[in-house]
Automatic annotation (TrEMBL):
Transmembrane segments: none annotated. It comes from Kribbella jejuensis. It holds the Pfam family NAD_binding_10. The lineage of its organism: Bacteria, Bacillati, Actinomycetota, Actinomycetes, Propionibacteriales. Coiled coil: none annotated. InterPro entries: Ergot_Alk_Oxidoreductase, NAD(P)-bd_dom, NAD(P)-bd_dom_sf. Residues 7-163 form the NAD(P)-binding domain. This is Uncharacterized protein YbjT (DUF2867 family).
């Protein structure tokens, strides 16, 4: 009974792997860059069959374009359970890329559970680069609200489902999950300063300034993000219960995340 953890370089995959090993599970870590991850095997999302040989359960990063190849290879390998790292955005409608992946992955002959987290607290790592370089965080829609989630909470939720295994009540379910409170991005930046002592100038960009500064190759994705943030101004983010349902504890706070990631902003 070996569990495959994809996305080996990711923070969530690393936490899932460590917790499964602690729980005495046989784990195979897979990455598109296996040399960057201790003991990892190569993972080619377009041809996942080699990584799936002898695997009974999978923690899967979402990718719409390669989902059909995953389903075929997982069925051929006799996989019994897949836990998909999806997104809360999958609930926005059928055109969302994560919704498309969910539709394909759930067609497989194995049990599927969908983890649907909102914005990650770890997105603040991108802010840290700006702070170290300029002392500023430059973002559009600073008053947009979100309820960011700690990556360890997502990982613990995934581990609960994998350890419970197929046939244990998680099959066919989706778990929307967020952090414990809705906060504006402006307030998150104030919290960074309060916890780390690093002074930060928050610069509220116009949408056009943001378009010029956002280094995103996919224009459609950029416009979707801008429209999403615009829609969140003055709209507190709903708090979703997935973390508490699966782990039995309340979701970790942003203060905890900042304390868990010391030295990022210095
Ligand atoms: N950031 C957010 O706020 C947020 C919120 C909700 C959902 N999500 C979703 O959560 C996932 C991870 O997000 P992130 O922000 O942590 O992204 P990221 O930093 O771009 O990626 C983290 C890890 O994802 C793995 N990965 C990426 N594409 C993959 C693929 N096609 N097949 C297998 N593994 C792949 C990579 O592992 P290797 O390179 O080691 O293979 C990488 O280490 C994404 O699907 C994202 O859409 C993100």
């Amino acid at each position: 009974m070996t569990i495959l953890v994809t996305g080996g370089r990711g923070a969530i995959a690393r936490a899932v792997t460590a917790a499964l090993i602690d729980a005495g599970q046989d784990v195979r870590v897979a990455s598109r860059e296996p040399s960057a991850v201790p003991s990892a095997v190569a993972y080619d999302a377009a041809d996942p069959a080699p990584a799936l040989q002898g695997i009974s359960q999978v923690f899967l990063y979402s990718d719409a374009s390669t989902a059909p190849a995953f389903v075929a290879a997982a069925e051929a390998a006799g996989v019994k359970q897949v836990v998909l790292l999806s997104s809360l955005s999958a609930l926005d409608g059928p055109e969302d890329p994560h919704a498309k992946t969910e539709r394909v992955i759930t067609r497989g002959s194995y049990a599927t559970t969908l983890l649907q987290p909102g914005a990650f607290m770890s997105n603040a790592k991108y802010w840290a680069h700006q702070v170290r370089a300029t002392g500023q965080i430059r973002l559009p829609y600073l008053d947009a609200e979100e309820a960011p989630i700690h990556e360890r909470d997502i990982a613990e939720a995934a581990v609960r489902v994998l350890l419970d295994g197929p046939g244990s009540g998680h099959d066919g379910r989706g778990y929307p999950m967020t952090g414990p409170e809705s906060m504006t991005r402006r307030h998150q930046i104030e919290m960074v300063t309060a916890v780390t002592g690093v002074p930060i100038e928050a610069v509220d960009l116009t949408p056009d300034e943001a378009r010029a500064e956002m280094r995103m190759r996919d224009e459609g994705q950029r416009e979707t993000l801008l429209a999403y943030w615009a829609s969140r101004v003055g709209a507190p983010a709903p708090i979703e219960p997935g973390v508490e349902l699966l782990t039995g504890h309340t979701a970790r706070s942003f203060t905890t995340w900042l304390t868990d990631n010391p030295g990022l902003f210095d």
